[in-house]
Design a protein that fits this description.
Blueprint (H helix, E strand, L loop, with lengths): L1 H6 L3 E5 L1 H5 L3 H11 L2 E4 L13 E4 L6 H7 L4 E5 L19 E5 L13 E4 L2 H11 L13 H9 L17 H11 L4 E5 L19 E3 L9 H11 L4 E7 H7 L2 H7 L4 E7 L4 H9 L15 H7 L2 E5 L2 H6 L1 H5 L5 E6 L7 H11 L1
Parallel strand pairs: 1-2, 1-4, 2-3, 4-5, 5-6, 7-8, 7-9, 9-10, 10-12, 11-12
Helix pairs in contact: 3-5
Length: about 350
């Protein structure tokens, strides 16, 4: 692994949730500084390097354009505690065809999804420290990824300008909603996500660390998020738990509104309401199939949550959301936002799934 890294001029370090659990952040930052690498994570490792000048965010299906652009330039990839599954690799398209070093504490995790050129079985932190010690020093000119021009590009990149907003008079672009929520939600927050097309919002809302971020899309099932969020909120009452859930999954678990109020849990529920099973809607559209069975009437859930004891609001515009800013910054009891989002906005992984199926 050291021999491969020594030859690389533009290495890319990928950190997964395993690297977070190993407490490897500082060791990986040190390795990046020594080798001139850029830093990126899997979805489950999200925000491990938030605030670092060489941070690219998430690799793969949840990448922004700058992350894809810079990752494509890498001449070596070294992954620590990351599974490198089809979402992390965008079905094999997000990683350039360069040497791949895969570090994991469990041997069977290596090569499970993506073949590695060099396999290292070991603790992410210890391996990162050993590699840094084994590698020769480099001059600034030998670290092109750390050039002033690259640092300037990364510093000036604004994810809010990475898309063309598709707001309508009665719905909000989910990406714009995510950018706005990121500024308004309590900073010390736990983020719990249900599953669905609305997961396209993931890159736009930051978490304090990977340990404060939970996705519940096991087996591609929806409806698992509310139960997980209740557990997180009960275990961490010192932080506000933010549940982000689609209307399909919410309809399956709506009765848990009573649990939140009865247990007095510090929760904000963000309902991503596209009046549909959003993933199914886009899958059907991509296959030119009838979509009728995937769409719902436009039901206003805010009065229902209010009846349970939530402070609730219906959000159809960003101005509606801004009116809730004081409540979101310092919630006094549970909060419920029925956010009416534009159903025409498909998450990037929707087209990736369709393309992969076509091959």
């Amino acid at each position: 692994a050291a021999a491969v890294l020594t030859k690389a001029r533009k290495p890319l370090i990928v950190a997964g949730y395993g690297a977070h659990r190993a407490g490897a952040r500082d060791a990986l930052v040190g390795l990046a500084e020594k080798t001139g690498a850029l830093l990126i994570t899997s979805a489950r490792g999200k925000d491990m390097f938030h605030g670092h000048p060489c941070n690219l965010g998430i690799l793969g299906s949840f990448s922004h354009s700058m992350a894809r652009r810079m990752a494509d330039q890498a001449d070596c990839v070294i992954a620590f505690g990351a599974g490198l599954n089809f979402l992390t690799t965008s079905f094999g398209t997000s990683l350039p065809q360069v040497p791949l070093i895969h570090v994991d504490a469990v041997r069977s995790n290596i090569d499970r999804w993506c073949p590695a050129d060099v396999a290292v079985v070991g603790d992410a932190r210890i391996v990162a420290e050993q590699l840094a010690a084994a590698l020769p020093e480099r001059q600034a000119g030998e670290k092109p990824f750390h050039s002033e021009s690259n640092r300037k590009l990364l510093a000036e990149f604004d994810i809010a300008l990475d898309f063309q907003p598709a707001n309508t008079p009665r719905t909000v672009d989910p990406r714009s909603l995510g950018v706005a929520l990121n500024k308004l939600l309590p900073r010390d927050r736990n983020l719990v996500y249900d599953a669905g097309n609305f997961l396209g919002i993931v890159p736009y809302i930051t978490a304090p660390s990977p340990g404060h971020f939970k996705m519940t899309n096991d087996f591609a099932s929806i409806g698992l998020g509310f139960g997980a969020a209740l557990g997180v909120a009960k275990a961490r009452p010192e932080n506000t738990t933010v549940l982000i859930i689609g209307d399909g999954g919410f309809l399956m678990t709506m009765g848990e509104l009573e649990t939140v109020v009865r247990e007095d849990l510090p929760m904000i529920i963000v309902l991503m309401n596209d009046c549909a099973y959003g993933a199914e809607l886009h899958f059907l559209k991509l296959r030119q199939q009838p979509v009728g069975k995937s769409v719902f009437p436009d039901v206003d859930f805010a009065p229902i949550a209010e009846a349970f004891g939530f402070q609730a609001a219906t959000i159809r515009t960003l101005e509606d959301l801004r009116k809730m800013a004081p409540v979101l910054a310092r919630p006094d009891g549970p909060v419920f936002l029925d956010c009416k989002i534009n159903a025409d906005v498909a998450a990037p992984f929707m087209s990736e799934f369709a393309h992969a199926e076509g091959h």
